[in-house]
Amino acid sequence: MEMKQLKSFVHISTLYCNCNRKFINEQVYENEIGYEKIIQIYRTFDDETLEKMRHCLIGQMPNTYTMTKKCAENLVNHRALHMPAGIFRPPIVMSTYKDPFPGWTDNLYGPSGLCTWSARGLVRCIYGTAKCKANMVPADYVVNAMIATAWDIARRFKISATETDSKSELPVYNYVSDVNNITWGEYMRLSRNGFHEPFDKALWCFSYVIIPSKPLHCAIAFFLHNIPAYILDLIAMVTGQKRIYVKAYRKISRIIDMMAWFGLKEWKFSHRNIDELNELLPRGERTVLQFNIATINWSEYFRSYLSGIRRYFFKDNANDNKLQQRKTIYRRMLFLHTLLKTTFGLSLIMCMLKIYLRIFKIMPKIAL
Fold first, then answer.
1. Whether pLDDT at 153 is above 60
2. How far from chain centre, in Å, is Cα 124?
3. Residue ranges of the Thioester reductase (TE) domain (predicted)?
4. pTM for this entry
């Protein structure tokens, strides 16, 4: 080993790099196509040919991200076997809980994007299962767990150096918990409950529906996404503005479908290494490097979630007067939304009642 001063090396993977399995242990699973073969194919063929081979290369994986993460684990496991190295698998990383301050984030990847678009009135229909576990953790907890993992890897390597049996595999840490793991439905509900600072230029109030059926989702999305997009683009065309909504909703639709692959399923994970690590840390260090998912108060967390996205990602530092104006507009949209829902519901009941009465009138005639 050339890096003689190396104390610990942590490879950051993802909890979903083996999402083609139902139960995921804390071990490295061999890829169907070896990582060396993947590298050879990538160097041999051009981008157009690689795109045609895409489905063959990723196999049962949902996308190239998870497939390449799995390949990287195999590479690290083979090449770093005699080094103080380990693999850390974080779940979906969200904005911070407390450090450096509540709600900090610099991206809208994954569910954060969908939730933000819902809060701005863009996304109204989500394809997924509300009861499925979301497996998400605040970013500061993830960083703390990574630092603690680096310490544990160094500790394990020192112990293994004194033993005669050589390692056959690197330690793997599935950063997940069976306790305090919220569902997708709870994620959206808590986000809406903690939403108290409306975004600028919101199209509608924060309303959504989570649909587990693909045909039903497409039907509802047609009315809640497609039709409004064409209407808004028509208004933009008439007023001489740029048409952006149809194109934006097509992109959003692709993201919703991609997210649904994870939102419709649940996995079982072993997490013995991460649990033991939490117990091994001295009490003082455990307080500083807090990463125990059971200690998260999700209601408290979501009170600063969307406001943090507004403030730190969109750089929206609106003063109290502007926020008050937005809240007034938002309350009006919420009132209109409730009125439309009530009107639609009553109209539907009246239609069903008329159909029922017609059938009721026809039935005696048929009997005669």
1. yes
2. 17
3. 2-146
4. 0.88
Q: How many CB atoms lie within 10 A of CB 75?
A: 17
- Per residue, the 3-state secondary structure of the chain, as one string, reads CCCCCCCCEEEECCCCCCCCCCEECCCCCCCCCCHHHHHHHHHHCCHHHHHHCHHHHHCCCCCHHHHHHHHHHHHHHHHCCCCCEEEEECCEEECCCCCCCCCCCCCCCCHHHHHHHHHCCCCCEEECCCCCECCEEEHHHHHHHHHHHHHHHHHHHHHHHCCCCCCCCCCEEECCCCCCCCEHHHHHHHHHHCCCCCCCCCCCCCCCEEECCHHHHHHHHHHHHHHHHHHHHHHHHHCCCCCCHHHHHHHHHHHHHHHHHHHCCCCEECCHHHHHHHHHCCHHHHHHCCCCHHHCCHHHHHCCHHHHHHHHHCCCCCCHHHHHHHHHHHHHHHHHHHHHHHHHHHHHHHHHHHHHHHHHHHHHHHHC
Q: How far apart are CA 76 and CA 9, in angstroms?
A: 10
Q: Any idea of the CA torsion for 13, 110, 62, 55, to the nearest 10 degrees?
A: -100
Q: Which among 328, 279, 333, 272 is positioned nearest to 120, based on CA atoms?
A: 333
The separation between the first and the last C-alpha atoms of the chain, rounded to the nearest angstrom, is 95
| Omega within 30 of 0 (cis) for the link into 138 | no
Please state, rounded to an integer, the average pLDDT across all residues of the chain: 90
* Sequence-separated (6 or more) residues with CB below 8 Å from residue 214: 127
The C-alpha angle with vertex 199 and arms to 134 and 105, in degrees rounded to 5, equals: 50
Locate the domains of the chain by residue range. Answer: 9-335
Say how far apart CA 206 and CA 344 lie, in whole Å: 18
> 9-335 has which CATH code?
3.40.50
C-alpha dist (Å) from residue 353 to 11, 135, 365? 62, 44, 19
pLDDT digits (tens, 9 = 90+) for 56-72: 888 888 888 999 999 99
Q: Which two tokens stand for residue 267?
A: 């996995």
Greatest CA span in the chain, whole angstroms?
98
